[in-house]
Amino acid sequence: MDEFYDEMDDGQVDDLLQPEEDDSPQLYEHFRFVADRGQSLLRVDKFLVDRMMGATRNRIQLAADAGCIMANGKPVKSNYRVKPEDVVTIMMTRPRRDFEIIPENIPIKIIYEDDDLLVVDKPAGLVVHPGHGNYTGTLVNALAWYLKDDPTYDPNDPSLGLVHRIDKDTSGLLVVAKRPEAKANLSLQFFHKTTQREYRALVWGIVKEDEGRIEGNIGRDPRNRMQMTVFPEGDLGKTAVTHYSVLERLGYVTLVKCRLETGRTHQIRVHMKYIGHTLFNDERYGGNDILKGTTFTRYKQFVENCFAICPRQALHAKTLGFVHPTTGEEMFFDSEIPADMSQLIEKWRRYATTKEI
Q: What is the C-alpha separation between 350 and 296, in angstroms, rounded?
């Protein structure tokens, strides 16, 4: 077990609380302990603290609250009593990392910064976190460069850094913690759904209702492991809730505002497709086909031009609100819709007002 003691530190448990807005929604086993036959009944948080150098009981309790502490394959709370021969595992939202994050001079837009945190306006096309196939050139590498002169910031320390994630081809706001206490506090705000997050999305088709609520468990599609899907019944997937309201109906597309109640992988993309309104130019979910409109050649060319203007899913994380982890001040940030998506929306506005739909 020595390798577990050496790898685990006080901050790693914070990383367990990170919401799953990335491409790796499944949990990965990082640590495993088997209670011996003579084990007396003992709370699991105490059981783990006794076996993990550097881990505090409070951090382990936070991980248990997030469903990342398991006994015999099932999530348990921190008051669970370990029995003889129980198998206790700690799960994380990414595989065990065996590579070092190298600072890279990648331009990033910082819209707010203080001693505890910073808020980044991420461009579309930038991968957030290193992973399979993307070990360099990510936002994390860029942050490592930006904060390279901060002696307290270690990009390889999971108790610091990104508090949540958005997809590579989604633009918009992310909060980054510069101190372990800030990440623990912000992570709990996301976990308890007290943050404020709104997105703008351009979707195929005319959304009839002015506003609505989409609820349906989201999990990996068993027929296509590169996609997520909605499981409307049963206990497959994880609970997901999205609220939407219509901002503009533009011919064969609709501009909507989406508010996340949960933060699942591809949540808005999957939920909007589930109700029949796939995001415009979302290649993974079929939005890069002409899903609505006429058969006229001129219309097809118009849509192809739209795809070229915004060559990614038309989704932007526009607002982000949270309580500052140190001052207790309510913080709120707003990001302008980027040029590619703004031009796309304006092009559909002109089409909707000048063409017979």
A: 18
The residue assigned the tokens 């600072």 is 103
Catalytic residue (one of 167, 169, 282, 340): 167
On whether the CB atoms of residues 35 and 84 are closer than 8 A, the answer is yes
Q: How many CA atoms lie within 13 A of 356 on its CB side?
A: 1
Is residue 206 within 8 A of residue 252, CB to CB? The reply is yes
Residues 6+ apart with CB under 8 A from 251: 293, 348, 351, 352, 355, 357
- 81-82 and 171-177 strand pairing: unpaired
CA distances from 20 to 15, 111, 250 (A): 11, 24, 32
DSSP letter, residue 283 = G
Q: Give, in order, the Cα–Cα distances in Å from 293 to each of 34, 313, 354.
A: 60, 19, 15
Question: Is 184 in contact with 66 (CB distance < 8 Å)?
Answer: no
Q: How confident is the model over 21-40, as pLDDT tens digits? A: 443 346 778 888 888 888 88
pTM as predicted? 0.74
C-alpha–C-alpha distance, residues 119 and 318, integer Å = 12
Tokens of 99: 């590579």
What digits encode the pLDDT tens for the residues 166-185?
Answer: 999 999 999 999 999 999 99
167 is catalytic: yes
